[in-house]
Amino acid sequence: MKTSLLAIAAVIPLLASCTGDPNSGGIFWSEPAAQQRLSDRQQRLDDVEGQTSRTRSDSRRKQAEIDRLSGE
């Protein structure tokens, strides 16, 4: 009985620290948390793709200016 109580006492802090995020050691599945992580990742991807598009556009403009100035 005493061993069982000690085992339970040792497990409770571990369970309390679980987040539901498997990437941070969580062991409990949470559909809303998973959907939020997916939404956050999609937003980061959209931001990076937007920045990539702007950078490519800026690069093309600068290359056109270089070509114009060098007489090509």
TrEMBL record:
Chain spans, region Disordered: 38-72
UniProt biased composition (Basic and acidic residues): 38-47, 55-72
Source domain of life: Bacteria
Annotated protein name in UniProt: Lipoprotein
Organism of this sequence: Luteolibacter arcticus
